[in-house]
Design a protein that fits this description.
The structure holds two protein chains of two kinds. Chain A is mainly alpha-helical. Helix content of chain A is about 70%, strand content about 10%. Chain A has helices spanning about 5-20, 25-40, 80-95, 100-110, 120-135, 145-165, 170-190, 195-205, 210-220, 225-250; strands at about 45-50, 55-60, 65-70. Chain B has helices spanning about 1-20, 25-45, 50-75, 80-85, 90-105, 105-135. Chain B has one domain (about 5-140). Classes of the chains: A mainly alpha, B mainly alpha. Chain B: Keywords: Cell inner membrane, Cell membrane, Membrane, Transmembrane, Transmembrane helix.
């Protein structure tokens, strides 16, 4: 195996790993990796991606053995900014304006970058989204503020639980429970009137929007395995949220 | 007046969602605008007497189409625009009432809400599918007959 082939294999898999981890569609990962490997001058490129791993193989030279490597993706988060940036790097690499070393440097930067928006802004965003949706789903303007507060508490709960417990579904369950409980409590002390709408608003920021949309897209582009597994992932998240909120309603109402 | 307020609130809520999903800065406002227009289309459809499912299909189709158009123009993955675009259609309240009915032991009511939730979710998916099909003409995704290339 030559040094260049090894390097290209590494940067391709790194790009794929970042994309898949942060919520790109399966077809995008496969296409990007195949394009990058072809642009580096290798033939017989094949890439197979599911929701949890990437296989990539290409032929270094005629007559030499083909190479094949895989990478396993454990966590799936949502950071569409990183997907966009990797997309940009692969575009430049494919058009030939980036060398292999440059591409590796850029990808490592993206890989180690912090979240695009600061954490307080994410919590604020969850609050605004929660308050807004509580109004859109038929609450009054007086329900905006309690839903805002409950959504922020749920968002903080989600992030902090995940930080210390590192179990995603437990964190979602706890976040839904916290959101529901704070909504019930706020209505109980006379702050806001439509309990149902406030609870819905506080839970909206937890909705698994990225996996759901990607599941549809994957199924359509023929990545059946990835599509089904993504759909199941979204379903698990929805079930966690539903059981968290059901628990809080059963306890306090 | 009421609709105007709803559109403004949709815009801010979608901006909040954009921050949660870390949508790049240049697509944030655009996503909010697409979300607002989606909400407007859905409400207009309902006002003209369309069924909720049909209004959702149309709104989702329009949102996904705009997302595809702009994604090509500003060189950005289409999900960064289509996810904010379809968020206002998510049947959150239906899903919640489904859960509530089951918790309270009212299974028939729960099934009714559950079916409605599934239909609305399917409507969103259908809109996405139509838009994707339109933008894949010629490129092709999935084939049934070998009609030669």
């Amino acid at each position: 195996m030559g040094a260049k082939a090894d390097k290209v294999m590494d940067i391709c898999l790194l790009a794929g790993e970042i994309m898949l981890t942060y919520g790109a569609e399966t077809y995008r990962v496969e296409e990007t990796l195949e394009r990058m490997a072809r642009a580096a001058g290798f033939s017989n490129v094949h890439c197979f991606t599911t929701t949890t791993g990437i296989f990539l193989s290409f032929e270094e030279r005629k007559g030499r053995g083909d190479m094949m490597q895989m990478v396993r993706v454990d966590n799936r988060m949502q950071d569409l900014n990183k997907v966009t940036e990797v997309n940009q790097v692969s575009r430049e690499f494919t058009s030939g304006s980036l060398t292999v070393a440059d591409a590796e440097e850029r990808l490592n930067e993206i890989y180690h970058a912090k979240i695009h928006y600061p954490l307080w802004l994410i919590h604020l965003g969850a609050g605004v989204a929660g308050g807004g949706f509580s109004y859109l789903f038929g609450g009054g303007l007086s329900d905006y503020l309690p839903a805002f507060i409950a959504a922020i508490l749920a968002s903080i709960g989600l992030v902090e639980f995940e930080r210390y417990l590192k179990v995603r579904f437990a964190a979602e369950f706890a976040a839904a429970f916290i959101g529901g409980t704070s909504a019930i409590f706020l209505v109980f002390i006379g702050f806001g009137s439509n309990m149902d709408q406030i609870i819905i608003g506080s839970l909206m920021p937890l909705v698994p929007g990225v996996p759901l949309t990607n599941a549809v897209r994957d199924l359509l582009s023929g990545d059946l395995l990835a599509g089904i597994s993504r759909g199941v992932e979204a379903l698990l998240t929805s079930l966690s949220i539903a059981s968290g909120i059901a628990l809080s309603i059963s306890l306090f109402l | 007046m009421n609709l105007l307020l709803e559109i403004v609130i949709t815009f801010t809520a979608i901006l909040g969602f954009g921050v949660i999903f870390s949508v790049p800065r240049r697509a944030l406002l655009l996503g909010g605008a697409i979300g607002s227009s989606t909400w407007f289309v859905q409400q207009a459809g309902l006002a003209f007497g369309a069924t909720p499912v049909f209004a959702t299909v149309i709104a989702s189709l329009i949102a996904a189409t705009i997302a595809h158009l702009f994604a090509r123009r500003i060189r950005i993955p289409v999900t960064t625009l289509s996810i904010p675009g379809i968020l206002p259609l998510v049947p959150g309240s239906r899903a919640y009432f489904t859960m509530l009915a089951f918790v309270e032991g009212d299974y028939i009511q729960g099934l009714e809400y559950g079916v409605e939730t599934m239909l609305l979710a399917g409507a969103i998916a259908a809109g996405l599918v139509f838009a994707l099909s339109i933008f894949s003409f010629g490129k092709g995704i999935g084939n049934r007959y070998e009609t030669g290339n």
